[in-house]
Amino acid sequence: xxxxxxxxxxxxxxxxxxxxxxxxxxxxxxxxxxxxxxxxxxxxxxxxxxxxxxxxxxxxxxxxxxxxxxxxxxxxxxxxxxxxxxxxxxxxxxxxxxxxxxx
Length: 103
Known about the structure:
two-stranded antiparallel sheet; 5-stranded mixed beta sheet; alpha+beta; globular; about 25% helix; 7 strands; YaeB-like fold
């Protein structure tokens, strides 16, 4: 997935946050603006889920203003040009190499 499509949707306000993502964000003390900024300001697609249903999805690595890593999973509806935040979390350093590769 092209991160630029996500960025354009976020900047245009065409974003839907799932209930699950809101719950996970609250559990990890993350704010929506912080999550969106982590994608806009240098977000990097580190995993593509091309077979995800109903639309392809991806895992994006971004960082907040304190340079803390944030992983967010997004889907993108090309027809409606809407990005959906599926889930988000602070990655566990014991599970990731350089926040990009699963151990």
